[in-house]
Amino acid sequence: MMRWAKKNIFWSTLLTVLCIVCFPVNPLILTGVVKTNYCPPLFIIGWVVWAFGMVLVMAPIVMFPRRGGVAKGKSFVNTTRLVDTGIYAIVRHPQYTGGIYAIFITTLLWYPHWLFGLLGAIGTVAIYVSCREEDQRLIEKFGDDYIRYIQKVPRMNFFVGLIRLLRSRTAKSHQK
After folding, report:
1. According to the model, what pLDDT value does residue 75 have?
2. What's the predicted TM-score (pTM) here?
């Protein structure tokens, strides 16, 4: 347990630092440390990506209390049931996925600079590692139900998950 806690602290610290440095209201840009050229089309696309990412980030806060069997007065993360509907039928980790979109991709679109590309890639890898660890914890918590869920729904690839869901629904409608 201690080894897991140390790894968790490392990844949490790394992600916190990267999220601060790559936050869309960017301290490196505001202080003039990094200079970029403003590109209106990328800035507009960045707003769309940010909004999409924030919807994903907020999903568990809305869905877990409603569908996850969270006891009244407890935090939304204290689920007692596996949630596999709504956005969770598309990706297993919408909050992490949304963080990648809302922080790392948006920052790169708003402030196109190689440094934000590099930091975003490092941040994405750190989030991916965190998701793998979270999957292991959820297998321990939910057992075979979570293993079956893993086989149906991708970890973070929103587009693959959406295609799988649409194909599954199309196949079910043709069977009727």
Report:
1. 84
2. 0.81
